[in-house]
Design goal:
single chain, mainly alpha, 15 helices, 68% helix, C4-dicarboxylate transporter malic acid transport, transmembrane, transport, Sulfite_efflux_TDT
Amino acid sequence: MASQDPCPSIAYVYDDDAERRFAVTMGTGSISLLFYAFPYGHDSEATNIMSLVFFFLNLALFTLFTVISIARYVIFPGVWSTMLSHPVQSLYTGTFPMGATTLFNIAVNLINQRYHFGGKGFLYTIWVVWWLDVAISIICCWGMLHVMQTTHNHSLERMTAAWLLPVVTLIVASSSGGVLAPALHAHNPSYALLTETFSMFMVTIGLALALMLLTVYLMRLIIHGLPPGATIISVFLPLGPTGQAGYSILLGGQYFKSVLPLGYGSSEVLNSRTAGENVNVICVCVAFVLWSLASMWFIFALMGVQHVLRRSRIPFKVPFWGLIFPNGVYANLTISLGNTFDSPFFHIWGSIYAGMTLLLWTLVAIRTVIMVYTTEIFEAPCLEDVDLGRITPVNGNAAPVAPFPRSLKERATPTRWDGRDASTSRSRETFPNL
């Protein structure tokens, strides 16, 4: 193999973990949302400033990772089809639209509504970009499920919580629609109603699919046992769809309570005097049920982690970033229910959990920075996925002069699961990164 000096630069463009990087933006965005929603000192300059700090950090990371991903597929166009044929890596395409939606909430609630930046034009720009994100989310959901059925080779034993990623895109996009709708209502009630109605459509489909997959995932855990080693933390991932769906439905109930009855048209349902109140009560009840399900998975996760810790240590892996978003949205739903019920319990528990999520983000970020400094973060892509002896610069750009790296293509086939270095490949490929 050629010298490893150019390894980091090439890995950053070619790295087969390219899609998983957006889990970093998802986690960072959830921290920004938690500062904005924090019940103690809410809307104070301190919490707003911290929310903006994480927002702009998230924006910078999202922009950087997007540029890297575009460069990756422009320089190595064949990697796109190879990635889509991979039974696990392809699922992480859903992290891109979900990473983008974490930016919308703060851009609307804090930057546009609180600080009045950009006015109506800025709000409509976010709305248009949100529809683009919705389109990508829909493609990820229906498209990847179709690819899983027709192209990939899956089995119950090899199932991971990463199967949730394509369907959760709809849930996350719907929550941003719930944030946009009240802001749009002041300018165009029809656009706002369309946005929230479509958001409820998306969360219904996304939640239904997620609950189906969670049922199968629980059966997989019972039959085949807990994930080994560092992959045990994947049991926290079900907090993501349940927590975010609860938040999205809660926002939907609040919006319909404020706009119903419509006061026009001939629909008896939409013009009923109690329609808004009834919809809101139903949505609150559903959100509480989903919070209860998320709490159930949280207890399962704690029991699973302590079971593994009693037998071995859990080494740090970069995919630990996948822990932050599901825990962050669970904390956010808890705080939101506290506001709805005016409940000290939900406020206190949500605040504690938000603090633990911030601590987790800090620890993972510090460890990741250290790995970047020591280039440890680049070792796997360079040594396993890129044969540097077969890559040469062309016009200043790295380009393959031979077929694409063999290991990535091998992992697109079922034989990779039982092939060379099974322990390493299994830890990388079975670890979900939601």
